[in-house]
C-alpha cells in the first residue's frame, strides 16, 4: 500500500520560497537554465517525485517540454504529439489535457482512486497517485502547464502547495512571454543591424549616416523592454494577493509584498524619467533643475532600502550605507535628479557584481562640498573602459557580463545631471577589483540652472 503524507509549507517558508522564485524568474531573459533551477526547487519544496513544464503553441499544435525532472523529454513530447514512444513518459494525458482544455488547476490526492481519473488505463498502469497540474496563463493566453506528481505516496500535495504552484505559474508564464517578446525584438534588431551594414557598403556616406541615426532612435525604443522586469514582479505579487481568498497570507507577509511593489514601482518611474531626460538631450533641449532644500540622508536611505528588492541583489551581497555625522541633513539640489544619479550608481554596482560582495554608499563632507562614493567588489574596468564610460550608448562587452542587460545611457545621463549641479563625478577601477564612483556636489547651490 502506498505511503500517505500530509505536509503543508509553513507561512514563512511559503513566502521565502515565493520571493526566491520571483527574483530567480526576473534575473534574466535567458530562461532555460532559470526554469530548470526553479522547477528543481519547487519539486523539492512540495515533495514531488517528478515534474515538467509542457509548452504548447495553440496555432500550430506544436508541444515541447522544458525543465524536465525524472521524465524523458522525447517521450513526453511523443505522448502529446501522437508519435511512437509516448508510453515511456509514464504520465496520464487525460490529466494534462483536462488542464489544457478547462484552464483550471487539478489536484488529486490519489489519482488511482480519484473518480475523475481512476478509470483511465494510463493512471492505473503507471501507478499515478499524488498529482498536481496548473495552467500557464498570461493575459488569457494559454502557454502550457506545470505538472508535478509522486507515484510512491498519496496525499503529498495540499491546497497550500496548489496556491504556491499557481503563484509560481503566474511568474513563469509572464517570464516566458517576456522572453518571447525579447527574442523577437532581438531578432528584429539583428536584422536591422544587418541591413545597416549592407547599406553602409552599398550607399553613400550620407545615406549610411541617416540610417545610423534612425537605428539610434530605434535603440532608444528598444530600452522599453527594461521596463518589463519591474512590471513582471509587480504583477506576480498582485496576483498572489488577489488569489489569497482564504486569507492565508498574514499582515506581515502582505506588507513585505507591498514594499516590494513600491520599490519596483519607484524603479519603473525612475526609468521612465531617465528615458524622457535622454530624449530631451537627444533633441537638443536643455534639462532644468528644480532647486530646493532636500534631505540627502533620506534619499540615500530610501535608495539603499529599495535596492534590497532589486533583481540583481542576492544573499551574497551586502548593501551598506555609511554617512558621516558631519554630513548636513539637507543640501540645495533637485531631489528627483539626485535620486536618478544615485539610483543609477547603486543599481550598476549591484548589476556588475554578479558574484556578490559589499556595495558601500558612503557620504562625507569636504569643505563646502558633499562627497558620495558608491563602491563595489565587482568585475571592475580597464583604464580604457573608464575613459569611455560616460559616453552615450557605451556598454562593457566583456564575456563575464555579456548577458547583463542595459541601455548604455544611465552614466551618460548621470554625468550630465552632476554637471548641471556644478558638481563632478569620477571613477576608480581595475579589472577584478571592483569600482568606486565619486560624486562631489555643492552643499549650497551657486547659480545652478
UniProtKB/TrEMBL annotation:
Organism of this sequence: Chthonomonas calidirosea (strain DSM 23976 / ICMP 18418 / T49)
Keyword annotations: ATP-binding, Cell membrane, Coiled coil, Kinase, Membrane, Nucleotide-binding, Phosphoprotein, Transferase, Two-component regulatory system
Transmembrane segments: none
Coiled-coil residue windows: 172-205
Main location: membrane
Superkingdom to which the source organism belongs: Bacteria
SUPFAM superfamilies from the UniProt entry: ATPase domain of HSP90 chaperone/DNA topoisomerase II/histidine kinase, GAF domain-like, Homodimeric domain of signal transducing histidine kinase
Name used for this protein in its record: histidine kinase
Subcellular location: Cell membrane; Membrane raft
CC terms in the record's Gene Ontology section: membrane raft; plasma membrane
Catalytic activity: ATP + protein L-histidine = ADP + protein N-phospho-L-histidine
SMART domains per UniProt: GAF (SM00065), HATPase_c (SM00387), HisKA (SM00388)
EC numbers, comma separated: 2.7.13.3
Domain Histidine kinase stretches: 222-445
Amino acid at each position: 500500500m502506498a505511503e500517505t503524507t500530509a505536509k503543508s509549507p509553513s507561512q514563512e517558508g511559503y513566502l521565502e520560497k515565493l520571493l526566491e522564485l520571483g527574483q530567480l524568474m526576473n534575473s534574466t531573459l535567458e530562461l532555460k537554465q532559470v526554469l530548470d533551477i526553479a522547477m528543481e526547487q519547487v519539486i523539492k519544496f512540495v515533495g514531488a517525485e517528478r515534474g515538467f513544464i509542457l509548452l504548447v503553441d495553440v496555432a500550430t499544435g506544436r508541444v515541447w517540454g522544458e525543465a524536465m525532472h525524472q521524465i524523458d523529454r522525447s517521450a513526453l513530447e511523443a505522448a502529446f504529439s501522437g508519435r511512437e514512444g509516448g508510453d515511456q513518459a509514464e504520465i496520464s494525458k487525460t490529466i494534462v489535457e483536462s488542464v489544457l482544455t478547462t484552464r483550471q488547476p487539478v489536484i488529486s490526492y490519489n489519482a488511482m482512486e480519484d473518480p475523475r481519473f481512476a478509470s483511465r488505463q494510463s493512471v492505473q498502469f503507471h501507478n499515478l497517485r499524488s498529482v498536481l497540474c496548473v495552467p500557464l496563463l498570461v493575459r488569457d493566453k494559454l502557454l502550457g502547464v506545470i505538472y508535478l506528481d509522486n507515484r510512491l505516496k498519496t496525499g503529498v500535495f495540499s491546497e497550500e502547495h496548489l496556491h504556491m504552484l499557481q503563484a509560481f505559474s503566474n511568474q513563469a508564464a509572464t517570464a516566458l512571454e517576456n522572453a518571447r517578446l525579447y527574442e523577437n525584438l532581438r531578432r528584429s534588431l539583428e536584422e536591422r543591424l544587418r541591413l545597416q551594414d549592407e547599406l553602409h557598403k552599398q550607399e553613400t556616406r550620407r545615406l549610411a549616416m541617416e540610417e545610423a541615426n534612425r537605428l539610434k532612435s530605434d535603440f532608444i525604443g528598444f530600452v522599453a523592454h527594461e521596463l518589463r522586469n519591474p512590471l513582471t514582479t509587480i504583477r506576480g505579487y498582485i496576483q498572489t494577493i488577489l488569489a489569497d481568498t482564504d486569507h492565508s497570507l498574514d499582515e506581515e507577509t502582505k506588507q513585505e509584498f507591498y514594499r516590494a511593489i513600491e520599490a519596483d514601482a519607484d524603479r519603473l518611474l525612475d526609468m521612465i524619467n531617465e528615458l524622457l531626460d535622454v530624449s530631451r538631450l537627444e533633441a537638443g533641449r536643455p534639462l532644468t533643475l528644480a532647486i530646493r532644500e532636500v534631505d540627502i540622508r533620506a534619499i540615500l536611505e530610501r535608495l539603499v532600502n529599495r535596492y534590497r528588492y532589486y533583481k540583481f541583489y542576492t544573499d551574497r551581497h551586502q548593501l551598506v550605507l555609511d554617512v558621516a555625522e558631519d554630513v548636513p541633513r539637507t543640501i540645495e539640489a533637485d531631489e528627483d535628479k539626485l535620486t536618478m544619479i544615485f539610483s543609477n550608481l547603486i543599481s550598476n554596482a549591484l548589476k556588475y557584481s554578479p558574484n556578490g560582495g559589499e556595495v558601500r554608499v558612503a557620504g562625507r563632507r569636504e569643505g563646502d562640498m558633499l562627497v558620495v562614493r558608491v563602491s563595489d567588489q565587482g568585475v571592475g574596468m580597464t583604464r580604457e573602459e573608464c575613459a569611455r564610460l560616460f559616453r552615450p550608448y557605451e556598454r562593457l562587452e566583456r564575456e563575464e557580463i555579456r548577458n547583463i542587460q542595459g541601455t548604455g545611457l544611465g552614466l551618460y545621463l548621470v554625468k550630465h545631471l552632476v554637471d548641471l549641479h556644478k558638481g563632478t563625478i569620477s571613477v576608480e577601477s581595475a579589472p577584478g577589483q571592483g569600482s568606486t564612483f565619486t560624486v562631489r556636489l555643492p552643499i549650497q547651490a551657486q547659480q545652478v540652472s
